Amino acid sequence: MIRFLKLFLIFVVMYHIFVTVIWYGVLGWVYPQLPALGRDAIWLLFFAVMCIIHFKTLTTYLKIRKRPRITLIILILFGVGISLLKGKWMYDIFVGIKYGLIYLLIFLSSTFIGRLWSKKNTTNFLKFLKYLLITTLIAGFLRQGLKFIRPDLFLHIGYGPFNDFKFWVKPPIYYLTWYKGTPRRQGLFSWPNNYGYFLIAFLPVILFFYRQKFTRIKELFVANKITIMNSSIIVVRILAILLTLSRTAYIGWIVSITIINIQRIRKHKKFSWGIWIALLAGLVGLSIIKWASTLGHIQAKFGSIQYVIKKPSWYGLGTSWPAVNYNGTILPENYYIQLMLDIGTLGFILRTLVILQITRLAKKIQQSFKTITTDIQSETIYLIRKWLNIGRVSLLIMWLFLHVFEDSMINYLFFVSWWILSGYLSTYIQKRD
After folding, report:
1. What span, in angstroms and rounded, lies between the C-alpha atoms of 145 and 173?
2. Closest C-alpha to 200, from 157, 160, 247
3. What phi and psi values does residue 221 have, to the nearest 5 degrees?
């Protein structure tokens, strides 16, 4: 099971390259929906097999802490129902679920898998995750450099010339800030913003692995002192964030660093205000440089609010944002407004209820760990999940500006990791109570 999961996540990391080379370079982009469908089908098949093999555990799992699952099922049925009433095609409904709710479906499957894992498997997975994150970062820099040295090679295997994003067109070797503008780095990902989501989501965990001084867990992760290599990894990751030229990634970076250093900020208020002003000035400057993009984002956000006011009930799944690349018509540039457009105010309330229920479970895990005696390995797992949660909060803020979950590389890499740890810890706490 753990071996398959490792291979699947490596496949997810390589997904963009695989799709570009095979579907653009070899097949000429025949049936463009197949790669994503195939990837999701692999995950669902894996989950189904686990349910069959561990049916007894599944029945127990379904009986406990079931409110989020029930609410999510109601939310999906509600969304599908109102979409059918609006005359939406099943294809549009599928697109709406994919871009609006699929990360919650991953929650259902990953927490169950986490309940099946032993402490040894979970620790093994975290070591794998540590090196996967670093390898992905380094490989991204190497790939970007090779694009400059041998652009002809990339043009030959399915990439297009320097350009901006266009759906179902060969992805450019480099994305530009504007026409003939500055190249933006995207690592191994489909484009710079998605790479920024990845970098921010896992930034707190990288800092945990390579900066924090947890002396009780030094047997598992040598992090009791900052070495040159550790510092270099952190610097390279920050450099990667900067080179995306993504304002949303910068905002996520500020949120993560603020949460991590909240005690220092309170202690050194004047110095912190100086940093805040400098960062804000940098964001404003970049927004001015990318003024056409900035204006487009502002117009899209305020324009979409009018659609919500006009019809607060619903428009149906597959109406807005990434769906505009299919049959959608509205581009809100805000994930929360997108949900209100697709599933209405009531659907948005149901979705908020699911998140609150999940958050409540997370708080129970945190409270329980304060009252039970834990071993080094379980404490490590708990701390890594806690730092992953900082990344989740950053993503919630980034939702205000871009659609974080349009890229399934983020859905699988981040949420599979986070919710597997949640499932394991939940089981661990029950056994200790």
Report:
1. 11
2. 247
3. -135, 120
Look at the alpha carbons of 41, 45, 46, 48 in this order and tell me if their dihedral is positive or negative.
positive
**The one-letter amino acid at 177:** T
Number of H helices, E strands in the chain: 20, 2
Dist CA 260 CA 204 (whole Å): 8
Sign for the CA dihedral angle at 31, 35, 40, 46 comes to positive
Backbone angles phi, psi at 330, to 5 degrees: -120, 135
The structure tokens listed for 397 are 């803020």
Q: Dihedrals φ, ψ of 71, to 5°? A: -65, -40
DSSP designation for 176 = E
Cα 199 to Cα 5: distance, rounded to the nearest angstrom: 21
Tell me the torsion sign for CA atoms 185, 188, 193, 198.
negative
| DSSP type of residue 416 | I
Can you give the length of the chain in residues?
A: 433
- Interacting residues of 420 by C-beta distance below 8 A, sequence separation 6+: 110, 111, 113, 114, 117, 122, 125
> 192-201 and 376-398 are packed helices; what angle lies between their axes, rounded to 10 degrees?
140
Which whole-number Å values give the CA distances from 152 to 28, 147, 342, in the listed order?
A: 18, 8, 42
Judged by DSSP in three states, 172 sits in: strand
pLDDT-based confidence at residue 275 (cuts at 50, 70, 90)? confident
Structure-token pair, residue 280: 């804000």
User: Is 160 strand, coil or helix?
Assistant: strand
φ, ψ of residue 113 in degrees (nearest 5): -60, -40
Answer for the pair 402, 333: CB distance below 8 angstroms, yes or no. Answer: yes
Tokens of 113: 């898998």
Between 90 and 270, the higher pLDDT residue:
90
Kindly provide the b/e burial profile for residues 205-226, where b requires at least 16 CB atoms within 10 angstroms of the residue's own CB. bbbbbbebeeeebeebbebeee
- Angle at Cα 407 formed by Cα 171 and Cα 324, nearest 5°? 75
pLDDT at 97: 82
Report for 166-175, 191-200, 277-286: range of highest mean pLDDT:
191-200
Per-residue model confidence as pLDDT tens digits over 47-97: 899 889 988 888 888 877 788 888 888 988 888 888 888 788 888 888 888
For residues 38 and 41, give the distance between their C-alpha atoms in angstroms, rounded to a whole number: 5
